[in-house]
Design a protein that fits this description.
single chain; TIM Barrel; eight-stranded parallel β-barrel; 15% strand
C-alpha cells in the first residue's frame, strides 16, 4: 500500500481508506448501501489491515451513529494499527442544537463519537458540511480546544465551498488555531467539479483531498450501461433519486472509455476509475466501501500500478465537460492560471 502525506500535515495515510457507510443499515437509505454487522465489519477490517488499508472513515450521521459503534467493535484490540476518521455537523436529532458546527453541538458530537468508537482520541475529525450560521472563529476555537485536550489529532472539513474553506484557513492563521489539513470531497470521472476551484485551493494551501464516492455513487462499476436498467439491489435501483447528478449519455461515454482501457490493461473498470483518481493533484486518499469481501478485494487492486499517459488522456477526454465561469475563461490563459 502506498502512503501519502495528508495535505501539509506530518500524518501519512494510505492511498485507499475504508468507508463505513455500509455498517449497520440503520434506515432505508443506509440499507441501500449495506447492512454489515459487527462480525462482518471485523472481517473487512482484518482484510483491510492485511493489505495496508489502515484508515477507517465514519460519521455521526451514518445510521444514526450505529456505524461508529460497529467500527468501534470491529477495531477492538487493533487500535494501535488503525487511524480513525469521523465527521459531524449534519442533524443527529430533532432538537434546535442537534446540528451545525457550534461549540454546543460539536462538543456533544465529539464526546458521543469517542464513546461509540470506544477510543480515547480521534485521529482525524472533520466537519461534515459547512455551517453558514456559526462564526468560523467559534468553530475553530472549539476544534482547537479538542486538539489541546487530546480528543482529536488533526482536523478537516467536508463538502465546503472554496470561499468558506479559504476563510477558515485565514482565521486559523490569524489566531493560531489548527488548520484544516484535509477536505473530504466528492470527485470522480463522472463529476469533475472538484478540479475547478477546490483542487487549486488545496494545492496552494496544502489541503489534501480525501475523496468520497470515487466510483460516482456506484455508477462507475460497469454495471450500468446503455439499454439496461440498474441491477437489482444496487443504490442506483433502490434509491435512484439520491447521489450526484449526471447525464446518462455522458456516463455511457465514460464507461465505454473504461471498457477500452480495461481490455488493454487487464484491470477491472472500478480499478481503472480509482487509479485515475490516485494520479490527480492533491488526492491523499480514496474512500472505498464494500458490502462484501469480494468487492473489497477488487477495489484494493487499484493500487500498485499506474495508468499510462495515453490511457489517462482517453479517460480525460471521455469525461471532460465545460466548467462553470470563471474557470472556462481562466483556462484560456494557462500561463497565468496553472501552478507550475
Amino acid at each position: 500500500m502506498e502512503y501519502r502525506r495528508l495535505g501539509n500535515s506530518g500524518l501519512r495515510v494510505p492511498a485507499l481508506s475504508f468507508g463505513t457507510g455500509t455498517f449497520g443499515g440503520g434506515n432505508d437509505f443506509f440499507k441501500a448501501w449495506g447492512s454489515t454487522d459487527a462480525a462482518g465489519a471485523s472481517r473487512l477490517v482484518d482484510i483491510c489491515l492485511d493489505h495496508g488499508v489502515s484508515m477507517f472513515d465514519s460519521a455521526s450521521g451514518y445510521s444514526g451513529g450505529l456505524a461508529e459503534t460497529i467500527l468501534g467493535q470491529a477495531i477492538k484490540g487493533k487500535r494501535e494499527r488503525v487511524l480513525i476518521s469521523t465527521k459531524a455537523t449534519f442533524p443527529t436529532g430533532a432538537g434546535p442544537n442537534d446540528y451545525g458546527s457550534s461549540r454546543q453541538h460539536l462538543t456533544e458530537a465529539v464526546d458521543k463519537a469517542l464513546k461509540r468508537l470506544a477510543v480515547d482520541h480521534i485521529d482525524l475529525f472533520q466537519l461534515h458540511g459547512q455551517d453558514y450560521n456559526t462564526p468560523v472563529e467559534e468553530t475553530l476555537a472549539t476544534l482547537d480546544g479538542f486538539v489541546k485536550a487530546g480528543k482529536i489529532r488533526y482536523i478537516g472539513c467536508s463538502n465546503f465551498s472554496g470561499w468558506h474553506l479559504m476563510k477558515s484557513l485565514n482565521v486559523s492563521d490569524r489566531y493560531g488555531y489548527p488548520r484544516y489539513v484535509a477536505h473530504q470531497a466528492y470527485y470522480s470521472l463522472l463529476n469533475r467539479d472538484y478540479e475547478w476551484e477546490l483542487m487549486p485551493l488545496g494545492q496552494d494551501q496544502g489541503v489534501g483531498a480525501i475523496v468520497w464516492s470515487p466510483l460516482g455513487w456506484g455508477k462507475l462499476t460497469g454495471r450500468i450501461r446503455r439499454g439496461q436498467p440498474a441491477p437489482a439491489g444496487t443504490r442506483a435501483a433502490q434509491i435512484p433519486e439520491t447521489g450526484p447528478k449526471f447525464e446518462a449519455e455522458r456516463l455511457y461515454r465514460i464507461v465505454d472509455a473504461l471498457d477500452s482501457v480495461a481490455k488493454a490493461t487487464g484491470k477491472t473498470i472500478p480499478q481503472i476509475a480509482l487509479n485515475w483518481l490516485l494520479q490527480q493533484k492533491t488526492v491523499s486518499s480514496l474512500i472505498i466501501g464494500a458490502r462484501d469481501e469480494k468487492q473489497l478485494v477488487e477495489n484494493l487492486g487499484a493500487v500498485g500500478w499506474n495508468l499510462s499517459a495515453e490511457h489517462r488522456a482517453a479517460l480525460d477526454d471521455a469525461s471532460d465537460v465545460t466548467p462553470a465561469y470563471p474557470v472556462w475563461h481562466q483556462r484560456g490563459f494557462p500561463m497565468l492560471n496553472e501552478k507550475r
